[in-house]
Amino acid sequence: MTERDPDKVELTWRVAPFQSERSKGISALAVVAAAVYASFALGGVLLGLLAVLILVGGVGPFFVSTRYRLTAERVEVRSPFQRTARPWKDFRRAYVGERGVSLSPFRGRHLLEPYRSVMLRYGDHRDEVLEFVRRFGPPGDGE
Predict the structure, then answer these.
(1) In terms of CB atoms within 10 Å, which of 6, 95, 99, 116 comes out highest?
(2) Residues 6+ apart with CB under 8 A from 136
């Protein structure tokens, strides 16, 4: 966390899941390759390309680095698969998990939560992220 003056508070970090969990990544690549091969072989080019799009979109975020930036005013998440910049006031609930904290725009559990929430993966910064969310974010569940 960087504190130069009271008004300029910021926390930035990067998380690259593949670097810390290579065996899961290699397994995922093998499954994707097998599914794409089967799609091309059994369904033709169109089905094969569709399989590539769906599978790469599904597992792609695991293989790229995601940059997080928290300030007193907003939350930013940047990766090739996601670009989000939202003010803290957009979030009404924080759910603490094993690998990250989910910021939800809903007061309670909601069907659209997986699509509207922002997940902040801890990486090696669990304590700093949780402290920042406690300080500037919405009320939380869990911790």
Answers:
(1) 95
(2) 9, 70, 72, 88
Q: Where are the domains of the chain?
A: 2-16+64-141, 20-62
What is the residue-wise DSSP string for the chain?
-EEEETTEEEEEEEE-HHHH-HHHHHHHHHHHHHHHHHHHHHHHHHHHHHHHHHHHHHHHHHHS-EEEEEESSEEEEEETTEEEEEEGGG--EEEE-SSEEEEESSSS--TTHHHH-EEEE-TT-HHHHHHHHHHHS--EE--
Number of neighbours of residue 14 by Cβ within 10 angstroms: 15
Q: Which residues 6+ apart lie within 8 Å of 129 measured at CB?
A: 11, 13, 68, 70, 100, 101, 120, 122
| pLDDT tens, position by position, 21-47 | 888 889 988 988 898 889 888 888 898
- Give the residue with greater pLDDT, 72 vs 113: 72
Phi, psi of 38 (to 5 degrees): -65, -40
Paired strand residues for 3? 9
